[in-house]
Amino acid sequence: MDYKRCWAEIDLGAISENYKKIREIMSPGCKYLAVVKADGYGHGAATVAAHLQREGADWFGVATLEEALRLRKSGITRPILVLGYTDPTAAAVLSCNTITQTLLSAEYAKQLAAEAARVGCRVDCHVKIDTGMCRLGFEAEAPDTVPAIVSLSRESSLHITGIFTHFSVADDISENATEFTHLQFIRFARVCNLLKDAGVDVGLRHCCNSAGTLMRPEYHLDMCRIGISQYGLDPDPCMKGQLPMKPAMSLYAVVSMVKDIPAGATVSYGRTYTASGLRSIATVAIGYADGYPRALSNVSYMLLHGKKAPVIGRICMDQLMLDVSEIPEARAGDRVTVVGKDGDLAVTFDDLARWIGTINYEVVCGISKRIPRLVKPE
What we know:
Elements: E1 6-11, H1 12-25, E2 31-35, H2 37-41, H3 45-55, E3 59-62, H4 65-73, E4 80-82, H5 91-96, E5 99-103, H6 106-119, E6 123-130, E7 138-139, H7 145-153, E8 158-164, H8 175-197, E9 204-208, H9 210-215, E10 223-226, E11 249-261, E12 266-267, E13 273-274, E14 279-284, E15 301-304, E16 307-312, E17 320-323, E18 335-342, E19 345-347, H10 349-356, H11 360-365, E20 373-376
Parallel strand pairs: 1-20, 2-3, 2-10, 3-4, 4-5, 5-6, 6-7, 6-8, 8-9, 9-10
Antiparallel strand pairs: 1-11, 11-14, 11-18, 12-13, 14-17, 15-16, 16-17, 18-19
Helix pairs in contact: 1-3, 6-7
């Protein structure tokens, strides 16, 4: 198939390099959980997981049961942890596919245990502890948390193999944020120690996301959950250079036509751009339905023939326009670098995020499934 419209290139070699760099800084014996939710942060979950399984990743993390099942169907045999909610009525599906489910509250855990007992199966579980994120989990400071987990550990239909929490500001290097991350760790360690004293084997203890793994080696414990960093992106701009990574995704599109417009002509919906003089514009075959945010209208630029070409006018669903007045060699069929390098210049997902006031996670996860992912082998 000829993908001459827009496409993403996924560099497996970059993912390997990032994986090895992260492994090198992890504590000895610490397991690597590769987070591949949201279709591998837009990179293709099945492709990334298969590659990281070959590299030696110990676990995989997803957000939903459906994502976990797709990994199993694609040939992933390593343990998979569902980090979010799964309907308790799916207990048998979890068990039959050896998928580990997060216990996100006492009420939820009881429902899952009851359903598993009803159908005669046993579900592997990791207990989530809320140490300050205030999202999911047993509250670390609540007096009934430890007794509730002790009780759950005796449920024959549940098999607790791990316990974890999630840092909310590990990617922030300010003193206040550092203190809060430490407080979260202390709260988590206290729960783990109380459970140990009560005779409960909590299994794998894990609290570090990408930022925590890079910044807080003293918190690595038994496993680290690596997401954004393995794709070569920084958890936060303030962490740039903390551990040099290689971006795994580049994004390209083609010029569909080039034409001149006179002074006073307006471009695209809403007429938000008016030509100040004779301008040459190129229409490019990518739009917001492909995941290039409409908010980048009249804000961003792309690279063509090693030069910057500003995006002008409102970005459309399937296409957008560039000002190529300073690029006289522009022709229909030319490749445009949307994200990536062209000569001495580069556009990054961090650039796109900064231009519209969001984070690189959102931008890269938003790349549409209709954009083909072309895998570059190592």
